[in-house]
Amino acid sequence: MIVTKQKTLEDIIKKIKGSTFIFGCGICSDTSRTGGPKEVEAMRKILENNSIKVNGTYIIDAMCHLQKVKKAVRDNEESIKLSESVLVLSCGSGVQSAVSSLSSVDKTKKVISGVDTMFIGNIESLSSLKEMCSLCGECVLNETAGICPVTLCPKGLLNGPCGGMKNYKCEVDENLDCAWVKIYERSLVQNSLEDIKKIASPKDYSVKQPVGAIKFKGSH
Ligand code: SF4
Ligand code: SF4
């Protein structure tokens, strides 16, 4: 899931001119506690306490789903038309779903992002999200016993450990286990040490260039 954190209220409020409509996201932003039903309702109250009229709110179960956002915009067209801006409490992908969907209704409608997009996170518990993949576009997990050095080693080393590892802990943050010790230990029990004995080539960061879109053949 995509992990987000709320922008400061000061930053949000200074961007809103006039009245607004709030969209939330019922999956990732709800889990991140930045744009689910509770946060959208709390934001509505805060804005109204700051003399900003809120003409309506709506939670879409996935703000990254363009077709659902387009339908939500159609379903709330009257309230959105009354609003000078639309505040979106979801990741940057969701904000741009709103921009794209609102363009067909009113290109002048200002879309405001209420959160910062942080990382793709694994859900450890209801109150803990952990970054385990940085979406590098060239996955090395098959060579590193299924543990990501790009994300879990603060230096992103593809050949480790570095000289700073001490007592199996990371030199950048002694509270962290060294990712490369974990990779070594797992490679050992999996009998795949040969994989990490090979020197890994520098990553091809050109694959991180935006791809635009991927189209699948057929349907589910
Ligand atoms: S190497 Fe790490 S950052 Fe890259 S795709 Fe694999 S898990 Fe994600
Ligand atoms: S100690 Fe380990 S995890 Fe920390 S930077 Fe060095 S190789 Fe990476």
Structure characterization notes:
The strands form 2 sheets. A 4-stranded parallel beta sheet has the order 3-2-4-5, sandwiched between helices. The chain has a 3-stranded antiparallel beta sheet with strand order 1-6-7. Helices cover 33% and strands 20% of the residues. The chain is elongated and about 65 Å long. A hairpin with a 2-residue loop joins strand 6 and strand 7. 29% of the residues are buried. It is built from 9 helices and 7 strands; from the N terminus they run E-H-E-H-H-E-H-H-E-H-E-E-E-H-H-H. By secondary structure, the chain is an alpha/beta fold. The protein folds into 2 domains: 2-120, Rossmann fold, CATH 3.40.50; 134-203, no CATH class. It binds iron/sulfur cluster (2 copies).
Brief descriptors of the model:
single chain; binds iron/sulfur cluster; 2 domains; three-stranded antiparallel sheet; 220 residues; alpha/beta; Rossmann fold; four-stranded parallel sheet
| C-alpha termini separation | 21 Å
Q: How many DSSP E strands?
A: 7
Ranges where pLDDT stays below 50 over 5 or more residues in a row are none
CATH top level of the largest domain? Alpha Beta
Percentage of β-strand residues: 15-25%
SS class:
alpha/beta
Shape: elongated
Describe the main β-sheet briefly: 4 strands, parallel
Task: Summarize the amount of helix as a percent range.
Answer: 25-40%
User: What Rg is obtained from the alpha carbons, in whole angstroms?
Assistant: 22 Å
Q: What's the architecture of the largest domain in CATH terms? A: 3-Layer(aba) Sandwich
CATH superfamily descriptor of the largest domain? Response regulator
**Physical arrangement of strands within the biggest beta sheet:** 3-2-4-5
CATH topology of the largest domain: Rossmann fold
User: Please, how many domains?
Assistant: 2
> How many helix segments?
9
Bound ions, cofactors and other small molecules, one mention each: iron/sulfur cluster
Mean pLDDT over the residues: 94
Instruction: Please write the string of helix (H) and strand (E) elements.
Output: EHEHHEHHEHEEEHHH
